[in-house]
Specification:
The structure holds three protein chains of three kinds.
Chain A: H1 5-8, E1 14-16, H2 34-49, E2 55-59, E3 74-77, H3 83-93, E4 98-104, H4 105-111, H5 113-122, E5 127-132, E6 135-136, E7 142-143, H6 162-165, H7 171-176, E8 181-188, H8 192-210, E9 215-221, H9 225-228, H10 232-246, E10 250-254
Parallel strand pairs in A: 2-3, 2-4, 4-5, 5-9, 8-9
Antiparallel strand pairs in A: 6-7, 8-10
Helix pairs in contact in A: 2-8, 3-5, 4-5
Chain B: E1 3-8, H1 9-19, E2 24-27, H2 35-43, E3 52-55, H3 59-71, E4 76-80, H4 82-87, H5 89-97, E5 102-108, H6 124-128, E6 139-141, H7 146-163, E7 166-172, H8 173-177, E8 179-184, H9 193-199, E9 215-216, H10 223-243, E10 247-250, E11 257-260, H11 263-278, E12 283-288, E13 290-292, H12 296-303, E14 308-312, H13 319-327, E15 332-336, H14 346-358
Parallel strand pairs in B: 2-3, 2-4, 4-5, 5-7, 6-7, 11-12, 11-14, 14-15
Antiparallel strand pairs in B: 1-8, 6-13, 10-12
Chain C: E1 2-10, H1 20-24, E2 30-32, E3 44-46, H2 57-61, E4 67-75
Antiparallel strand pairs in C: 1-4, 2-3
Classes of the chains: A alpha/beta, B alpha/beta, C alpha+beta.
Chain lengths: 255, 360, 78
């Protein structure tokens, strides 16, 4: 016996819909970009926790520079790498608000390393989300601080040469060493199971703020199909095979 | 009863900040202005007014903390000295581009580079012409006394919020370190979060249901729209030029020769005028109090009445360019100044008037 | 005995045809359309509607939030 689809598509049967915190704007990201999933998860968590009125979010420079076009919360657009400095001041001046910063690898782990480390070391009571796709997407695929050894980028066209270009930076492990951080985890959003885990991590990040526990830091190992020159599906596979061994998933610190 | 205290210029900034209801100070130590944060940390205003005081990891972080705080509609400030202010230029242009009010105090020391810790006025161009990238201006106030160091904190915030623009207090190591008596103002309460939401509907205070979400940004990828925004900024600067010029004249009524100087240089020039008049030379002084907006019209008007103008500053000649633009060729304008942390004496200025203006 | 039946609605205007939903679908329900949307993308659609179990895996991984998921229990004849 088959059921007519029209009978299934009814409000009472709804199990998943786009978050009401998201705007109607079509995201500018390339097809298959992890940024879209990460942004959507933040929106879902804000909606589910009912904290839209209490969130002040901080956008970076990079592919997610226009993140403020997609989530209906109050936004500040930071200079490149400075989101944790903004977040520090916002939280200290408005401790009644949830503060979430969102940065890519170039923003957080290269130009903004000092701001990142010092905000975490002071234990600023904020949630920091770090998108690591091992490449500079917005500027056209240059080498990032997290580009893997041998991985090609437009400024290391023959692959990252450790002797010439230096080592990829595991900043999340470094952050976990700092006494100010309460929760440091590395997640991904490439499968439904991974998405669910990342969502749980984001919920925990906001709850930690409520409990005034210190800095929560969530790295999301991500793909950049355009930068990696692979299809979105191939990118997921490449990420599993190459990124995950160097950037292993899981909680690094949870107290 | 008046509350009179003896204090350093840097201490006056700190005291005034607490008293005029500042919400946050974010800074990084640098000579010769470290007393600002030292005073604040000793006074612990977070226990009294609720003002946040934080030592940041760098000037870059400090100025971006200002951006975060200002975007929440809070009264936030920092202070530094020349090399630190250079490091803040990125943040300043973002603040100007996002139209955020805040106050930055520059207790200038001699440059370029790491330079010296002695006073100078060589950051004039950086202060009044923008400093960072793009077409923008800061509102620039130049105190010439410790009293003005205190008074200009509140004035700078008033102007910053009136025009949604960063304001700069441009002093130098001499005024920062010098001790004078100061009449202290009474304490004003800080704005409440509700008041901020009422007064500054643009601020990121958390999105209520009844308004669209706020975005504080300096980014606009559509060139046509960004041109419109830039034109709006320029109209704002014109409004500031039209309404906010502040200056002081000294012995100008019968002056045949005019000195133009600001800040500590203006103090020295007052003595020079006394010495010149003792020698029968009728000299007067115009002291710009606002450097942006610049008292262009006022200097131009005086230029019609005098035989020559000497611009005096502790630099190799920066203010003199704006004086010349104001005078527009009406009379001779020359520069006199010491640099590298050296301070001119009143006698040197007298000699310069004789050599460069009267005799030259 | 009851069986779970699902269905998805794809926002074909916003879909960029990245096919991550196709990969994520455990019941091989989703495919990319032969037609393209206004932006030139082959958008996702229920190619085999009968197999959908309403698990929402597709919607979870969709970067553009263009999938809405429904499911219901259907009584099956013994």
């Amino acid at each position: 016996m088959s059921v007519d689809i029209k009978d299934i598509i009814k409000p009472e049967n709804l199990v998943y819909k786009k978050s009401s915190v998201l705007t109607d704007n079509v995201m500018h990201y390339c097809p298959g970009c992890s940024h879209g999933v990460a942004a959507k998860l933040i929106a879902e968590v804000i909606e589910e926790l009912g904290i839209q009125r209490e969130v002040i979010a901080i956008a970076p420079v990079g592919c997610s520079v226009l993140l403020y076009n997609y989530l209906q919360v109050d936004w500040q657009e930071a200079a490149h790498g400075r989101a944790p400095a903004l977040g520090t001041a916002v939280k200290r001046l408005r401790p009644d608000r949830y503060v979430v910063t969102y940065q890519g690898d170039g923003d957080l782990a290269a130009i903004g390393t000092a701001e990142t480390i010092h905000a975490c070391n002071r234990g600023e009571n904020i949630l920091m989300i770090f998108i690591n796709n091992g490449i500079y997407g917005m500027t056209g695929g240059q080498m990032a601080p997290t580009t893997l050894e041998g991985m090609k980028a437009s400024t290391c066209p023959f692959g990252r040469d450790l002797e010439h270009d230096g080592n990829p930076l595991k900043i999340t492990e470094l952050i976990a060493q700092l006494p100010g951080t309460c929760y440091v985890t590395r997640q991904s959003v490439h499968t439904a199971a991974a998405v669910r885990k990342t969502k749980k991590a984001i919920i925990k990040g906001f709850q930690n703020q409520k409990a005034e526990k210190g800095t929560s830091f969530i790295e999301i190992v991500s793909t950049c199909s355009s930068g990696w020159k692979l299809t979105p599906a191939q990118s997921n596979k490449w990420m599993e095979e190459h990124m995950f061994p160097f950037y292993p998933l899981g909680d690094i610190k949870d107290r | 009863m008046k509350e009179i205290r003896l204090m350093k210029g840097n201490e006056a900034i700190a005291e005034a900040a607490i008293r005029c209801g500042v919400d946050g100070y974010f800074g990084y130590p640098i000579t010769p202005q470290s007393e600002v944060m030292e005073t604040l940390m000793a006074l612990q205003p977070w226990k009294t007014t609720g003002m946040v005081v934080l030592q940041a990891e760098s000037e870059t972080a400090s100025i971006n903390m200002l951006y975060g705080g200002a975007a929440c509609g809070k009264k936030v400030m920092t202070s530094s000295s020349s090399p630190g202010i250079s490091l803040m230029q990125e943040g300043m242009t973002y603040l100007a581009g996002a139209e955020l009010p805040c106050v930055v105090a520059n207790v200038v020391r001699g440059g370029p580079g790491l330079g010296t810790i002695q006073p100078a006025q060589s950051d004039y161009f950086q202060s009044v012409k923008g400093g960072g990238h793009g077409d923008y201006h800061l509102i620039v106030l130049a105190p010439a006394s410790v009293q003005e160091m205190a008074d200009f904190v509140e004035l700078a915030f008033d102007l910053a919020f009136k025009y949604r623009n960063p304001a700069l207090i441009l002093s130098d190591g001499m005024i920062g370190q010098m001790m004078e008596k100061v009449e202290m103002k009474p304490y004003k309460p800080r704005w409440t979060n509700d008041e901020i939401e009422q007064m500054h509907p643009w601020a990121t205070t958390g999105k209520p249901e009844n308004r669209k979400y706020n975005i504080v940004t300096s980014l606009e990828l559509d060139s046509a729209r960004f041109e419109v925004f830039n034109e709006k900024l320029q109209r704002k600067y014109q409004q500031i030029r039209d309404n906010e010029v502040r200056y002081e004249t000294f012995e100008c009524d019968d002056a045949e020769y005019l000195l133009v100087a600001y800040g500590s240089s203006a103090r020295i020039c007052q003595k020079s005028i006394q010495l010149l008049r003792e020698q029968g030379i009728k000299a007067g002084l115009l002291r710009p109090i606002t450097l942006f907006p610049f008292p262009t019209k006022e200097i131009n008007a005086l230029a019609s009445r005098v035989k020559g103008i000497l611009s005096v500053e502790m630099s190799a000649g920066q203010l003199v360019e704006d004086v010349r633009l104001a005078v527009n060729g009406k009379v001779k304008v020359e520069h006199y100044g010491r640099c590298g942390g050296m301070i001119h004496s009143p006698e040197e200025v007298v000699e310069a008037v004789k050599q460069k203006i009267i005799g030259g | 005995m009851a069986k779970i039946k699902g269905a998805i609605v794809v926002d074909a205007v916003a879909c960029k045809g990245c096919a991550l939903c196709v990969e994520a679908c455990p019941s091989k329900t989703i495919g990319l359309a032969k037609e393209v949307n206004a932006k030139g993308y082959n958008f996702a659609y229920m190619a085999v509607p009968d197999t959908c179990i309403g698990c929402a895996n597709c919607a979870m991984v969709c970067p553009d939030s263009c999938i809405t998921v429904y499911k219901m229990k259907v009584a099956e004849p013994a």
